[in-house]
Structure formats: structure tokens, C-alpha cells
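Dear colleague,

Thank you for sharing your sequence with our group. We've completed the structure prediction you requested, and as agreed, I am returning the results in plain text so they can be pasted directly into your records. Please verify that the sequence below matches your submission; if there's any discrepancy, let me know and we will rerun it promptly.
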Amino acid sequence: MKNTRYINEYLKFITLLDKHKVDYLLIGAYATMIHTRTPRATKDIDTWVRQTEKNSIKLSKAIKELTGREISPKALLKKDQRIEIKSETFKIEIWTSQEIITFDQAWERRKIESVEGTPLNVISKEDLIKLKKHFNRPQDKIDLYLLEHENGK
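Please find the predicted C-alpha cells below.
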């Protein structure tokens, strides 16, 4: 992945998640790019966080350090939500649940990768394929092709 300004912001966010020991998984386009080693356009980075009180407190601290914005841990515990953090240079989406896989299941199968020396908790290829098949949006179909064919070995 090219070292651009927005990727630096994303890596800063991931570094803060690690610093605060937040249980998270990278999902979406960046997970697809990591599994397939194929770059593609995306407008954001998607993360999925464990829904516990302890994890929401840690996530709240990481968000405050990144943005200066306070989000109460209680607000982060609401199920089935997407929290969006954005600026002119980046957009981060934090998901609190996924419809067909539990966080604990996905966490056990996660892949730990490194980008520019930053460790990343990435959803497993098999779980990412399940999510892409479930949502089945046009971009998901393209990602599925990459994940299920040569580039995704």
C-alpha cells in the first residue's frame, strides 16, 4: 500500500487502538487488500470492535486521543451501529456488530499482519468472504472475485 497522507492517518488510528489495547478487527476494503495483495480504491477504513464495557472504555480513549472528541463508553456499547469519524483527509468507520458472525468467532480466526511496522488485527479471509457474500453489494462481488481467485491465495 502506498504511503499517502490518509493511510498515515489510518495507521495512526490503528496505533492508538493498539496503544489502548482495544480489541478490533480490520474489515472491508483494507482487509481485502491485505488478503489479496491487490490495491483498490476505497473512501474509508472499516474496523469492527468487541462489544464489552472494558473495550468501549479503551476505544473511547483512543478516539479522544485521535480526534479530541469525547464519545461516552456507554454510547459505544449500542448494538448494530456504525460510528463515523472523518476529516478532510480520512474517514474511519467503526462497526459494533456484524449480522452473521460474532466478534468472538472472528477474533479466534483473525490474521495478524503488519503494514509499515504497524501490527493489524485483520478479519480472516474465510470470515471476510462470508461477510462479502452476505452483503453482496456491487463492490463486494468484485472483492469476492479477488478473494476467491488467484490474487487471494
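Summary note from our side: DSSP finds seven helices and six strands in the chain.

Kind regards,
the structure core
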